[in-house]
Amino acid sequence: MAGKKGLRIKIGLKCSVCNKHNYTSEKNRNNSQEKLSLRKYCPSCNNHTEHTEMKKLH
């Protein structure tokens, strides 16, 4: 059985300071069409920094 394409897509979050990929998340493509930006902990920077959405993952 073929499933229909869901509304949620997988995204990666990267640190805006050191540009390392730290987190993965999902977002609803219909409700939030702009890029997601969250303040999360970065283990490389050892600080809470702004993490922005990078291109979607497979």
At a glance:
The chain is mainly beta and about 60 residues long. It contains no helices and 4 strands.
Q: What is the CATH third-level topology name of the domain at 8-28 and 36-54?
A: Rubrerythrin, domain 2
Query: What percent of residues adopt helix (DSSP H or I)?
Result: under 10%
The total beta strand count reads 4
Beta fraction of the residues? over 45%
The overall pLDDT, averaged over residues, is 88
Give the second-level CATH assignment, the architecture of the domain at 8-28 and 36-54: Single Sheet
The string of secondary-structure elements, in order, is EEEE
User: What distance lies between the first and last C-alpha atoms, to the nearest angstrom?
Assistant: 20 Å
Shape: elongated
In spatial order, strands of the major sheet run 2-1-4-3
Largest sheet: 4 strands, antiparallel
CATH homology superfamily name of the domain at 8-28 and 36-54: Ribosomal protein L33
Q: What are the key terms here?
A:
58 residues; mainly beta; Rubrerythrin, domain 2; four-stranded antiparallel beta sheet
Can you lay out the helices and strands and say which pair or pack?
Layout lengths: L7 E8 L5 E8 L8 E6 L4 E8 L4
Antiparallel strand pairs: 1-2, 1-4, 3-4
Kindly describe this structure.
This protein is mainly beta and 58 residues long. The protein has a domain at 8-28 and 36-54: Ribosomal protein L33 (Rubrerythrin, domain 2). The chain is built from no helices and 4 strands. A hairpin with a 5-residue loop joins strand 1 and strand 2 (21-28). The two termini are 20 Å apart.
